[in-house]
Amino acid sequence: MDSPLAFGPKVRRVLAIWRFLGLVLLGALIGGVAALAAVGFVNAVVWLNDLLLISPRGRMMAADPGLVVLATLLVPTLGGLVVGQLHRGLPDGRPHTPADAIAAVQTRRGRLPARAGGLSALSGLVSLGAGASVGQYGPLVHLGATLGSQAARLLRLGRSEDNITIACGVAAAIAAAFNAPLAGIVFAHEVVLRHYALRAFAPVAAAAIVGHVLATQWLAQGALFHIADPAVPRPWEFALFLVLGGLGALVAGAYMHAILGMGRLAKRLPLPVSLRPALAGALLGLTALWVPDILGMGQETLRFATLAGAYGGGELLLVLGLKLAATALCLGLGFAGGVFSPALVIGTLFGALIGTLVAGLGGAQETFIFYAVCGMVAVTAPVIGAPLTTLLIVFELTGSYALTTAALASVTLASPLAAQLFGRSLFDIQLAQRGLDLSAGRGRAVLKEVRLAELISQDAVTLAPETPLERAISRLSRAGHGEAYRVDGEGRYRGCVTLADLEAHREAGAARTLADCPETPRPVLGPQASLWEAMHQLQRVTGEAIAVVDDEERFLGVAYESSIARAFLHHSDALRREEHGAG
Amino acid sequence: MPARRWLPGVVARLLPGLLAGLLALATLPLSSAVAEAPDEGGPLTVLSWGGAYERAQRRALFTPFTEATGMAVEAARYHGGLSDLRRAVAENAVPWDLIDMTRSEAMAACAEGLLEPLPADLAAPAPDGTPAAEDFLPGALGRCAISHSIFATVVAYRRDAFPGRRPTRIADLFDQERFPGPRALQRTPAANLEWALLSYRIPREALYRLLSTRRGLDLAFARLRGLDEIHWWQAGETPVEWLAEGKVVMASGYNGRFFAAMVERDLPIEILWDGQLQEHETWVIPRGAPNPVAARDFIRFATSSERQAELARHIPYGPARRSAAIQVTTHRDSGLDMRLHIPTHPLNAQGAVTKDEAWYARTQERIAALFREALLEE
């Protein structure tokens, strides 16, 4: 990137423009591939659900009721078995999710592995096809991100470009699956990139447009919801939407913690990891015999929840509770899939419940859809940490400005409240539990990802503890260093001594060898410690360097203060260029 | 869509008995050739729908066929459904040579083995030589049935019933405050369920997915039950008569019948095209028909581009083959531009729903039973 070639400024600018145009073109190409993958995925799920008697259509068309019961019990269970086996082929035994894509971009680690991405997509397809109560957009986002990352790898592009191509794949997948290009672009920025740079915007927009165009060609499904000129809510209802948003944040919190809690509980189950999804599938099927609404993504349930009178108040509460539990069960016990679609269903049911209550208290029936949509937004936005995306999805799917403003009212309170109480999103909470804290932004995340091992220098004076004082002083003086590191015959670190201290001991005549000198307190870090920790240590102690010592106390070398500062500047500069560069 | 939907079901059913099926397919032509008796002679009996539709068929198809072959064509009256055919096939006394059947019933009947399979090359190519498979609309050439027309079930209303207002959306069918007066609906689930659910502002793409749930069906039944006064009709001519008499102010019916009433009888009625339910009408030959050879000749004759275009000049059904659709011109009697009155015209087709015949073929009996239970047995 920082080519030292001696081109004139004009030539460099022309080259930069070509480079930028190439990136936009690459974005469009990635968008095309990711959108085709998304369209294929969505159609395959529909096909599997019809074939396996999971979708209402498939169930209705099966003439034999016994067959439907059998399928309800067996399909999710067998699907769980297959998913469990697929996950054995994954490095950490779990499917990759949008959280992994976010981590790759936020830490500039880049490079999403093709094998894990492909296997995760496949197990997502099996999970959804077999009727697990999980979402389809998570697998699509990760699949798009992986395709983008692989394109960058194929072309040997740098980290910044890798981040942009990941965002392109994500935007195209969302644009295609929802048929909502604006939401795709904003999602890529809001959730994945988490900054706004013109340099990234253009390729991402190109990808979203291509995704949108392809989806209108090949995705035969109708809009997720469709509302023709809804009534206008009365002014005081906006206050209700705001309150609904606040309550929605609590539902979102309950939903996220149910998923996380079930994940913790699963670890204590006396059952092999690969058999856990099958258990979830069996429990799901058993419950679905009673309430079939909880099977699968729940598109029909979502649609009915937007209609006044389709569910009674008690039914809404029952289906809401069961859907929440079913999703937590499926995701917690290891089915692969997203959290977005179930959140849409749960949120809409919750909004419908509030709408039913309001109607029962004498409120208007004709604005029922507003409550359903507000609930949907209030629960979904906090879960994925994307208030703007959720609003845009409402806008692009309904084309209704009135509904979008109502949704804005509800998300105003929902997102910040949930962020305060639970965290920015489920992804962020999961990453924090894996040790990646994104709450302080990308700068810290990047510094925390750089390992001290990369900065180790062997240019340090190491002396055995039995070295005579005189020799130690002369070695240090000749090497031009002020600090020496005591290392014993087995290579173990035995503390640091400074030249000044040694001189003082010689004058006092108190010590004969190095071992007699007391240690000068200096920070010691392991090779896996991060640049961030090193910076923190240096704030407290002044010294030349930090000794790097492994778990068995073996001395590995030192990290000089100057190289730590250089690395800090280098990474900050890369971030700045990526986030503020125009081309 | 139908092709994609169909595949899984077909595969699922075929997989277990794949070998047996292949064996049956291999021996089918041979055995049927041996078993087939020669035509008994006498007139060709066509089971069709009566009224203006039958009159149009007589002028455009039956009479020209008799002129060309010397074989008389008699029409018998059909009210839809498969029970009569089932009985006739079981008793080995099928009195008809041809049935003019909706595609959904043809699919169900074909699966039950009530129909003769048709040879793949039965339909003639277009006048310019385009093969029939490319000329016909997708899904028009079935194993036992060939689509000839696209007709629509629509709602029509009396122009004089709602002064200063006219219905514009299918939801208006259920709005008895703005559009008061009795309704006439067909005594079948089809169209009624679709319209009832559309009135909740459900997009048409989601209709059959939602009708596949008990909840969706209940919503539709509730909407229908909300109507004060429903007169259920069975024969296609009935709703026209009731509208003419003023017994009802809005009625469902076949677009062709309403057209005939407007043009030939000058009745003050208007068609509400929103929500029109488009369906394929097919020719089938029942198993054990007295004159199967002549029946096949008739199908080849009646589905030719020339005859199809001619039929659309008598009754406004959209021809099922492209070469015929582009030849449609004016109405034979009134000189009206027929393109504006066929369901497939872009102006009329904006709010059109394509009947999911695969869905009906597999669910007909159960849906009809639920429909009877919810609405007819009170």
Structural commentary:
- The complex is a heterodimer of chains A (583) and B (378).
- Chain A is mainly alpha-helical and 583 residues long.
- Chain A has three domains: 9-218, Clc chloride channel, CATH 1.10.3080; 235-272 and 283-441, Clc chloride channel, CATH 1.10.3080; 450-574, CBS-domain (Roll), CATH 3.10.580.
- Helix content of chain A is 65%, strand content 5%.
- In chain A, strands 1-2-3 form a three-stranded mixed sheet. A three-stranded mixed sheet of chain A has the order 4-5-6.
- In chain A, helix 22 (531-540) links the parallel strand 4 and strand 5.
- Chain A is elongated.
- Chain A starts with 8 loop residues before the first helix and ends with a helix.
- The mean pLDDT of chain A is 88.
- Chain B has 378 residues and is of the alpha/beta class.
- Chain B has two domains: 32-150 and 280-344, Periplasmic binding protein-like II (D-Maltodextrin-Binding Protein, domain 2, 3-Layer(aba) Sandwich); 151-279 and 351-376, D-Maltodextrin-Binding Protein, domain 2.
- Chain B has 16 helices and ten strands.
- In chain B, strands 1, 2, 3, 4, 5, 6, 7, 8, 9 and 10 form a ten-stranded mixed sheet that branches.
- In chain B, helix 3 runs antiparallel to helix 13 (305-311), helix 5 (103-112) crosses helix 16 and helix 7 crosses helix 9.
- Chain B is globular, with a radius of gyration of 21 Å.
- The chains are: A mainly alpha (583), B alpha/beta (378).
- The A-B interface holds A 43, 47, 50-51, 55-63, 220-223, 226-228, 292, 299-300, 303-304, 307, 309-311 and B 1, 4-5, 8-9, 11-12, 200-206, 208-213, 215-216, 219, 222, 358-359, 362-363, 366.
Instruction: Give the domain tally of chain A.
Output: 3
CATH superfamily of the largest domain in chain A: Clc chloride channel
Mean pLDDT of chain B: 86
Low-confidence stretches of chain A: none
- The rough form of chain A would be described as elongated
Strand order of the largest sheet of chain A: 1-2-3
